Amino acid sequence: MITIDEVRISESLSFILEHFQEPIFPRKIMTRSLGYQIEVFDKLTALNYFRLSNYEDCRINAYPSYTSFNGINRTPISLLMVDLDLKDFSERGNSNKDKLLEKALNKTLRKIEETIGAVPTVLWTGNGYHIYQPVSGIIPEEYEIFYEFTKYLDKDLTSLFIQFAEEYFTESTADRLHNPTVKSCLLRIPGSQNSKSLANNNKDPEVKIIQKWDSKRPSIQPLMQDFRRWLIQKRIDDIEELKKQEKKQNKFQIMFMHNQEHKNRINKIDWIEKGILENPLSDHRKYIIWRILSPYLLNIKNLPKEESYSVIKDWLDKCSKLERLNFNAKLKIKEGLKGASKGYYPISLEKLKEENKELYNILNG
């Protein structure tokens, strides 16, 4: 049995907390035994949950619990995170995965230093490296050149910047399943244990500090132009993906029209009915209208447009009680139904796992 130094865990948590901007609490944490995020209001409560989990998978969110006001993002970009996972290098068929991981780490650190002049914290996670870089950031939505993108995107711009920065600094070698947002940017606690490493009998499952940050919060201004280009490209990619999906769905629609029995079997999709229509959500609402509900109600359940509109509107009204909508509901529903009227089907659960991992996890939580 592994002996944990509780004093060292407390000191390590204090070290991680130094990376955050005020207010430090309330903030959400997560452990292996919890399996979900829970809000805590002080350090002692967090440490108690860590102890109850035998110090396995102890994590704390880099961003505070309250990130928006009246549905509008109010959280400045304050910390950037990079996840370099050993498995992403072992999958490339190269036996020198450890050397490739080290090379990626050093390359990422050089780019961070060259771009924003920063020396970040580096942790060994048991399966790779985490890089934590506090920054002096902005709320992108407050700037017109960025606010225009909120009409098309389903996530707040602070979350998207965190994801952009990870791609930018690593040149897309970071963990492909890692898409942190202000609600899921979870930092590991040095001295805690990585449960996957323990289960796999890895030689070094303990989270360790490899490098400490220099206590400086550099400006993100050097990255903003590239971020805007990234948002433009993301919009182009989304449009192209939609066209591909529509083409694919139109092809399958012809096949389904000649198989009424199969069509009857798929007339109701349980994960959409129970996970979405019966379960209002605080996030991903625009995405759900476009990729799931509009094509589902029109082309699977074969409801008239007017009835489909009412179903989506009723669902959004319930969602708004959890977190106020930050978009024009009537306009988004009409756009979604107009697109779905071309005949494409809702995204499959398997495809959703690849395209929107965060929503997939919520629906399967």
- What quaternary form is this? single chain
Structural class: alpha+beta
According to CATH, the fold-level topology of the largest domain is: DNA primase, PRIM domain
Q: Which segments are poorly predicted (pLDDT under 50) over 5 or more consecutive residues?
A: 260-265
* Strand runs, count: 10
Spell the H/E element sequence: HEEHEEEEHHEEHHEHEHHHHHHHH
Strand % is 5-15%
Biggest sheet strand line-up: 2-1-3-9
What is the correct CATH architecture of the largest domain?
Alpha-Beta Complex
Largest sheet: 4 strands, antiparallel
Number of domains: 2
Helix percentage range: 40-55%
CATH class of the largest domain, named Alpha Beta
Q: How much is the average pLDDT?
A: 89
Structure write-up:
It is a single chain. With 365 residues, the protein is an alpha+beta fold. The protein folds into 2 domains: 6-225, Alpha-Beta Complex (DNA primase, PRIM domain); 259-363, no CATH class. Helices cover 49% and strands 11% of the residues. The chain contains 15 helices and 10 strands. The strands form 3 sheets. Strands 2-1-3-9 form a 4-stranded antiparallel β-sheet, covered by helices on one side. The protein has a 4-stranded antiparallel β-sheet with strand order 6-8-7-10. It has a two-stranded antiparallel ribbon with strand order 4-5. A hairpin with a 7-residue loop joins strand 1 and strand 2. Helix 11 packs antiparallel against helix 12 (305-322), helix 11 crosses helix 13 and helix 12 crosses helix 13 (329-340). The longest helix has 37 residues, at 221-257. The relative contact order is 0.11. Mean pLDDT is 89; it is low at 260-265.
